[in-house]
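TEACHING EXERCISE
Course module: macromolecular assemblies
Task: Read the component lines below, then compare them to the predicted structure of the full complex.
Student: A.B.
Group: 4
Components provided:
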Amino acid sequence: MTHEHPHGDHDTVRGWRRWLYATNHKDIGTLYLCFAGLMFFTGGIMALGIRLELFQPGLQYWQPEFYNQLVTLHGVIMVFGAIMPAFTGLANWMLPLMIGAPDMAFARMNNWSFWLLPPAALLLVISLFVPGGAAAAGWTFYPPLSLQDGMGMDFAIFAIHLLGISSIMGSINIVVTVLNMRAPGMTLLKMPLFAWTSLITAYLLIAVAPVLAGAVTMLLTDRHFDTHFFKAAGGGDPVLFQHIFWFFGHPEVYIMALPAFGIVSQIIPTFTRKPLFGYVSMVYATCAIGIMSFTVWAHHMFSVGMPATAQLFFMFMTMLIAVPTGVKVFNWIATMWEGSMSFETPMLFAIGFVCLFTVGGFSGLVLSIAPIDTQMHDTYYVVAHFHYVLVAGALFSLFGAVYYWLPKWTGYMYSEKLGKLHFWWSMIAFNITFFPMHFLGLAGMPRRIPDYALQFTDFNALATVGSMLFGLAQLLFVYNIVHCVRGGVGKASACPWDGANTLEWQVASPAPHHTWHEPPSEAIVRRGLVAQALENRHE
Amino acid sequence: MNVEHGVHDAPYFVPSPSRWPIVGAVALFFFALGAALTVNKVAAGWYSLAGGLAILFWMLFGWFGDVIRESQQQQYGQQVDWSLRWGMSWFIFSEVMFFAAFFGALFYARSIAIPELGGDTLTRQLLWPDSQAAWPGNSAPTSTSYTPMGALGIPAINTAILLTSGATLTWAHWGLVRGRRLQLICGLVATIYLAALFLALQAYEYHHGFLDLNLTLASGAYGATFYLLTGFHGLHVFVGTLMLCVMLARASQGHFSEKQHFGFEAAAWYWHFVDVVWLLLFVVVYWL
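Instructor-supplied answer key:
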């Protein structure tokens, strides 16, 4: 494997240059994941600030203006700073390993995608200190409120532009890597499912990130250049913003869910020691979601006024998109059926994901019913719903992924005992935090308000206690990672999991700086595919 | 697919560590910071904006310079070529979606928002005196009245110019493929000339719109969609022209072979994309 190549100076860059000038997909993946972790705690502290204020009725800690800034930044940072970069980081780290590619297709652009994120985060942080404070119109930036905000909103708009450029470049990289860099013998329908979901996610992001850029550009010109896109006083319409925003926003929901589906589809077969049930139907379900997610956006807008036919269309489409998602849930369960299961930490998070994401899916179905949504719109029921999808969904899958691949990244095994403690602690604290919000919403408590009526006190106090516990549990997560990086409970073999058959487990642990410089041989690829039941033994 | 275009003939080109991405990130940070400050009339914003732009140009020269050098040294195998093709196609797709947002705004304002504000409703009377639910309309809240831009005249001429430029560019490409360097260079020069003509005419059209027709960004939903759609298109024409200039410089230095010239093709794809957007613009913004 000592192939002579003209650019043998890959490894000569050390120190800070290694990270600033990086072209290695593993280094860039690490950068993405660390950045996402940092943002997770930044957004998390804001969430705790929100819960602190809501511990009891009345105004305790923050002025309402600052409370609104907290809510806005919490949303923006968690969505664009934590969840999305974490998935991109995983794709960076794992895709080339899993499909047998030497690196991402555009290694330099990859680094630009990452390094646009810290400037965007910096702009958001600076915006807290400009006159008028940070953007306070919610992460959805609805006008007219977003037209009235101070200069913090402009910082948020340009931060979104940077995040959008980063997303588009990162996504083009993922799509091209998956389409053009697969090992010989790995056809599209033989890729690991994580590659499939990353591909569809990236395609969705290329399609909708520019639309968001357009929406915030119109906000900017409405704010400063006298246009009337969203001002009824000039023939525009604030509802237009909602349409454009949610045309981005609903695919965005799947951008944060599909990679999670992919991760869970890798973890569950491994720990059930069985091939994934219904691989092809999983792929079709992913593609179906990729198309249908463009046809459901106005279910976020049932209460703003729409013709009945439009309400019916979006209501039925929303119910319909639950079908491919249901296909996935049933396939995961069928994979577990009669498998020889073991419950290591990644598997616990995957099972937790399946259970709680399904709860979030069902509350989503409830909200899809237009007449019910008219009641629930902008209540805590919605808050409960999307936190089941994004925390117990996206975030739990990320936790699972980190524990699943930590041995490959660090070469050491994490402490299973502490990993399981992290899972159960998070699981319980999560439900204490967010389950009561269903009841609060049904009882009519509105979201994005720092104060509330007395009868909501008990559930709010409970949710705040839960959130503090959840925050504490994440310190354990950090400890687990640091512990593992520093040696954990011992060295990890190349394939520490019995049932793992994808290509990343064919390279050493920790993965060498450069892998698959020579693509894996067809025999190696074939062996893995046979074990995953994607190819016949006697083909 | 991979097996066909040679994983086996050459290892995939993985670039060495490079300073350009981080330089680009710094550039866009100062650009964004400067823009946010400038729109709020903070004087210091200009320095940040200009500094960011300068760093960005430095980065573009350096980065594309590296790419051109690597390409000239034959470091890009066929698989890299395919990556570039896929990459450029998806980039153009993202650009299409960017314009889709503004076209969507235009269709929405025109067929939903304006009719809804119209009629003899109280809403319409409350908008501003003499407001009418018409497209393109002729009155707006801030500027008392404006004249919409006609389709004949400059816009029609510009359509002809852009269509011709698409043809001259294809003629240049034929020259490249058949090894006629002079035809390539003449075709590129003609295309760039037409592009510059287009931009000049559009600048004149804006001048005319602002001064003679009182058509500004403040001219209601019509003025807003008109200027943002044509403005972003003009910006893309400008970027496309820069690409063509780089291709001209490379062509006259003897770059590109009959078989391998994706840089030229990428610029041509971009140019045709800009062309198609203009046709849509001409039909729905100016004509209908």
